[in-house]
Amino acid sequence: MSEEYQKYYVPAQSPWPIVGAVALFFIAAGAGLTVMQMGQESSHGHYLLFAGIAVLLYMLVGWFRNVINESHGGLYSMQMDRSFRQGMSWFIFSEVMFFAAFFGALFYARMLAVPWLGGDGNNVMTGEVLWPEFTSAWPLESTPGGTTTQAMGWQGLPLINTIILLVSSVTLQFAHTAIEKDKRGPLTLFLLLTVLLGLSFLGLQVYEYIHAYQDLGLKLDSGIYGNTFFMLTGFHGLHVTLGTIMLIVVFIRVLKGHFSSEKHFAFQAAAWYWHFVDVVWLCLFVFVYVL
Fold it and tell me: Where does the signal peptide begin and end (predicted)?
């Protein structure tokens, strides 16, 4: 058996998994309470949400520091590197399944539930019984309660954000090519541009949400259209946030002189993830905004 298979570093027990679990619980509970308490005079959910985000950032800093120190300490072998690659691959696959569930819900609502409610197929009386005034169309801009909304068009901010993410994938690929050739200058420049583009995307998405709420009346409770719109775009925005954090960490490591043309899996893993969220956005742009 070769030496690369004989060494496999097993770290000591770590507090970071339980710290991350607590942070995610606070974030989930705080986000839910924040949405439920919108419009009320007394709202405390956002405090729990911010606390969860702070704990999560603390966990990320601590866990990243430990892994970086272990790597620079020469504790990782080629077998460990393969484990990292397999772990990242399965993580991205789980994210694919996560978004597949939401796109499946969108498909069910658009292609099955809405036509059925409009009397399609053998459900002629369904709409007459459940919603007599219902008109089968998508996007569904009215609710049984009588509230109406406007659809978010694909032009304007969504199109600009699509261009931003596409350009960010190009700049990240240039950075990847630079690190493989040990060109630190272009690597730093293109990686910085990718981070700035990611931050720009997030800023414009926040502005888009404000526009949706204030000008279009498009909210999370705006029927199935509002539900699917904010669930898909919101979770994608969360993944872009995570990807941007990963790229920022990698950028700081580049400034510190980390990585080489032979050893740069942390950069590669962040690049895999960033290209993944870009592909998800393209699907989201087509099926949520355009069609």
Answer: none
